[in-house]
Amino acid sequence: MRKATFPGGVHPPADKWTADAAIETPPLPPRLVVPMAQNLGAPSKPIVAKGDKVKRGQTIGKPDGFVSAYLHAPTSGTVAGIEKVVDAATGRQADAVAIEADSEDAWADGTNQPRDWRALKPDEIRQAVAEAGIVGMGGATFPTHVKLTPPPGKTIDTLIINGAECEPYLTCDYRLMLERPADIVAGLAICLAATGAKRGLVAIEDNKPEAVRTLQEALRGADGAAVQVLETKYPQGAEKQLILACLGREVPSGGLPSDVGVIVQNVGTAAAIAEALAQRRPMTERILTVSGDAAARPGNFCCRIGTPIQALFEKAGVAADFEELIFGGPMMGKDQFTADLYVKKGTSGILVFRRAAAYDNGPCIRCGACVRHCPSYLNPSRLSILGESFLDGNLAAVDDAMNIGLMDCILCGTCAYVCPARRRMVHLIEMLRGERRKALERKREKQREQQAHLKREVEKVKP
Amino acid sequence: MSAQATTAAKPEPAAPMLIVGHWPHLRGKDSTARIMWSVVACLVPVVLASGWFFGIRAYLHVGLAVSTAVLVEALIQRLRKVPVTAADGSAVVTGILVAFCLPAQAGWYVPMVASFIAIAIAKQCFGGLGCNIWNPALIGRAFVQVAYPTDLNPSSYPVLTGGHVTANVGTVGNALPAGVQAVTSASPLAQMKAAAQAAQAAGADAQAAIAQAIQNAQDQIHANLTGGLPNLGDMLLGSRGGNIGETCALLLILGAVYLIARGWVRWQIPVAYLGTFIIGVLALPIHIVAEATQGTTLTASQDQYLWVASWAPDLAWKYVAYHLLSGGLILGSLYMATDMVTSPLTNRGMLIFGAGCGVLTILIRLYGGYPEAVCYSILLMNTTVALIDRYTQPRIFGHQK
Question: ipTM for the complex?
Fold first, then answer.
């Protein structure tokens, strides 16, 4: 079989220590804290108050806008209040619903019942996906119903289920593929029905032959669906790189996969869609990997959204003397400054390391490794130098960076990984992007002011 | 203190001190120091060989150049109040390369001055590692070339006379009486050039003298290629006149092969450089100027262009081989043109850069007034790197070309 791949990229050590660890379900914690900001876009709005009784799967948050998501109680119990907790994605304080579990773990009425999803129309499927609060589980947490709604005029011909899991350490997708292939296949079928796509691919890197076999077995007889084996390379699972690898199609700059007739869903998302449609179970739990050299018993855990990570640390034997805590994988995961955190829908992994990585920043020696490995064909060296130039007071550096593709960077960190000078490439690039956003906001603010001023002037001269 | 520790640990375990950095949290194994010290390791055998061929003065040059480079780097970094990174090996590489392009008999002050200029002017004045436009070692060399012309005069290069004894066997034909052929016996590069230019003849019949002079020049080139020059084995191993680090082509090539295999030297530059150079050697003629003189008065002159490949096809490969192995071409194309800082970022840019170096080198060698062309070719091409980078950027993902 042809091993699909993309140009550029790197081969970091896989360190998938937990590949053989079956998914475990830790005991239900007595208290769960569900942050409202679970998805890309607007955070959900809480619709419960202190003292309310809730059941598992009951809606506790409503979407605030189109790119937003429903949020459900992860177990039954009493709402202890709306609290401010640190959001692992932004590091800022954000609202969260705290629930004291009653240990009955009872499902809400109308949930946890079988449903024949084949009778549903595409719109009804999308509605059901939205109401189940499903967001992209690869880590980006984009609301799935939005993804399943292609812009008008765009036809989707291919659906790719992303089982690449190219991040080192993480194995939750791998275990899911081994243990629940039927859910993934069902999720694929539902997505095909919702989008009208004719072809479905499950893309898996060739370092997971067991998963390839399992899915090939599960897909036997499925119409238009197949496993696509990928070369093991980072960032093979990045959406645009995955589409290029599987289909040879390049998503245009600033565009979406639907521009080339494709939708990509993570395997975890596909399984969640299957549960939501076939079992009427909203998203209340997820599988994640706890690993790193500070975890004595690293493993894969299926835990409720809102589980305090301390509960997982006990299960995984994490000693208190770790120096670095990462939410996500080591390549694109986010460092946390506190361990007072809770599992969210996008938490694919929690990594703990005794010794933090060195975050130094040497001068660029122009070796060109970043240019050769960049999967977006950018010049990261130049972008990072422009970042430093901006910090030195050269405000025009943002515009210069825009001219060489600042917005086309996918922030995958390949450049920083290969950099012998250990430059903080992604940091500088992200900083420039932030400055770009700020500059745009300033510009809009100025336009608004001008318009308001104009309006006042017009009012004045009106008789 | 122990009591404090126990009381602090008991009620609430102290929150771990978490270190936060931007992703990626994984880094590859390469580091600047690792690359630089690997280059040093690849050059050490050449240093040892230079002592074998040119005596203890070679070690003296390397030692003085390296220690000056490291000290100047550290000193300037202290003055600039920036972290002192003299231990990252980059100054050591510069020091070794500076020494490598000096002849053994140059004064002891020459490597020190060259190293100082290389580090202080060519590197630190531009902002230190990664910021310089020109290869520091070559700037150092170019400076001492004009500052101490007698120390670096290629016509006084030592040539090997048995074992590893060095001796001066230089004769230059500037002041010779008319009618006598003057041939230099210097480094092979200077030899070929001299043969092409120095044939002189005098007499009543200027045309006959000119024809004779051209014939003499051609004979001399033929003689050089068939035995007048050190044999090619010696050229490859390093038993020939020249600067201390540029004669042992074999060890230079072996080191570069390792660096290319590790990806720290990109093959694009030497391949484009040497490839273009070979094409130039075969495609461009030797320019012979024959002059007839009466006393000191020029009575007639004639230009003759000699394409070696068609004039003596059986000797063409030797002609190419001597060109490749003489002068600083091997050292320059493998270790100086490939300097990461002063060469382009993109593969396509590297090919263009290497080809430019090759064209300039052969043009200067064949038609310039100075036989050693590698230094200035690379420095000239260094100047164009920013431009090359700008026009060889790959198409960005998702953009139309």
Answer: 0.90
